[in-house]
Design a protein that fits this description.
This protein is mainly alpha-helical and 447 residues long. It contains 19 helices and no strands. The termini are far apart. The protein binds phenylalanine.
Length: 447
């Protein structure tokens, strides 16, 4: 029993939980995806829609998931199964999503480490598009960097909840915000930054297509780490003294601030040096190095920027691994050491395949997608929205709002001010919004 408890673990403090949870949320989704999505989908208009979805859907599901975790003290699958056997598969799908996402997240984490090393040894010289293309398509090198990233992730998870995840998040998260603000100040004070600021802040609603709204919703799920049992898992290490309504408010606030700041760090600089904001995924790995190369002291700012990206990525990858680890500790009584080791190796098989999909295996297409894009599509576009939708249905109509409210307020110990608002959101607004967007994405309804 003692050993089991030790393998499971608990947060040592409320601040530690908030830092770890914000660490999970703030990741490549904020720094890499958000700025280019805003760049492609109308700048300010996208930002407004994004914020609305965070408030109405993100907050709702975040609070729901933390509640399920704390109420049961179990991993994603165990939590659902304890409350209602018929819903166990929802938790299972979440664990599968974590496994899948970490498969390709490791690869991108490896790219980030490569860029850090590159900036230390003199920056990305020459044509950054050629540099990036040659690097990610080579067969061995990206896999080695991904391995370094995966090992760092495994090490922190192996150290446990308070001695690993919490300890590192408490240092890395504040450091990330400091570095981000330094880069933002550099970016917005560049001559010519004004055009970027205008683009970012002035909404162009004509670009706000249904596809942009779908992208915003998917991005909220991904960025807040929702729909895959991550918040259930992290919530399961909480004590009953924690005011989780407050946490479900603070974490999305921190995550959205980080995303907005990332836009301020990237878009003005991109405009100042005459680049295109809407180039898509290559914005961070191709456009930014050229921006840094053109900037005074660019090597220093480039290095700082990619270090902050690494901090963000690693506090997210540990949460993905922890979702899987917790399942094997709870359900199969594995030790933490065995769970992290076996799972990291299994996930790394996906990482190798996703890395090869950028080069030698680029022509191997499944449903018209290479392996990397396939993993991202299955997880972000199918598993996460289904997980979020089912969570709302489960809490709203099966487990019951009353049980959830009792858990959140600890039977009246905490005020739960947003009770009425949250109830309406969980039962109606969030599931309907997610359902419509999901059906649209699958092509079943068109608007
Ligand atoms: N939220 C993380 C990011 O923004 C990614 C992530 C998704 C982490 C799902 C955990 C769970 O990069």
């Amino acid at each position: 029993m003692e050993k089991e408890k030790k393998d499971r673990g608990q947060w040592a403090s409320s601040l530690g939980f908030i830092m770890a949870t914000a660490g999970s949320a703030i990741g490549l989704g904020n720094l890499w995806k958000f700025p280019y999505l805003a760049g492609q989908n109308g700048g300010g208009a996208f930002v407004i829609v994004y914020i609305l979805i965070v408030i109405f859907v993100g907050f709702t599901i975040m609070l729901g998931e933390i509640t399920l975790g704390r109420a049961t003290g179990l991993n994603a699958l165990g939590a659902y199964r304890k409350l209602n056997k018929k819903f166990a598969w929802v938790g299972g799908a979440g664990i599968l999503a974590a496994f899948t996402i970490l498969g390709y997240y490791n690869a991108v984490g490896g790219w980030v480490i490569k860029y850090i090393v590159q900036f230390v040894t003199g920056g990305v010289s020459g044509d950054s598009a050629v540099f990036f293309g040659e690097f990610i398509s080579s067969p061995i090198e990206p896999i080695i960097w991904a391995l370094v990233f995966a090992l760092a992730t495994a090490f922190i998870v192996w150290k446990g909840i308070s001695g690993g995840i919490e300890k590192y998040s408490k240092v890395l998260m504040p450091a990330l915000f400091v570095l981000l603000i330094v880069v933002v100040i550099r970016s917005v004070t560049l001559p010519g930054a004004g055009a970027g600021l205008e683009y970012y802040l002035k909404p162009d609603f004509s670009k706000l297509t249904p596809a942009a709204i779908v992208a915003a919703l998917g991005q909220v799920f991904f960025s807040l780490s929702l729909g895959m049992g991550c918040m259930i898992t992290y919530g399961s290490y909480l004590s009953k003294d924690e005011n989780i309504e407050k946490d479900a408010f603070i974490v999305p606030l921190m995550d959205t601030s980080a995303a907005l700041l990332a836009g301020f760090a990237i878009l003005p600089a991109v405009f100042a040096f005459g680049f295109e904001p809407g180039v898509g995924p290559s914005l961070m790995f191709i456009t930014l190095p050229s921006v840094f190369a053109a900037m005074p002291l660019g090597a220093v700012f480039g290095l700082l920027f990619f270090i902050l990206v690494l901090f963000a990525a690693i506090t997210s990858s540990i949460s993905l691994l922890e979702v899987c680890t917790a399942y094997f500790i709870d359900e199969f009584k594995w030790s933490r050491t065995k769970a992290t080791l076996v799972l990291s190796c299994a996930i790394f098989v996906l990482t190798i395949l996703s890395s090869l999909a950028m080069g030698p295996m680029a022509n191997v297409l499944i449903f018209g997608k290479n392996f990397f894009d396939l993993l991202d599509f299955i997880a972000s576009n199918i598993l996460l929205p289904v997980g979020g939708l089912m969570m709302c249905i489960f809490i709203g109509y099966f487990w019951g709002i009353d049980n959830a409210v009792a858990e959140i307020s600890q039977n009246g110990k905490f005020a739960f001010r947003l009770k009425g608002f949250w109830t309406v959101l969980v039962k109606y607004i969030a599931p309907i919004a997610v359902g419509i967007v999901f059906l649209n994405m699958l092509g079943i309804i068109k608007f």
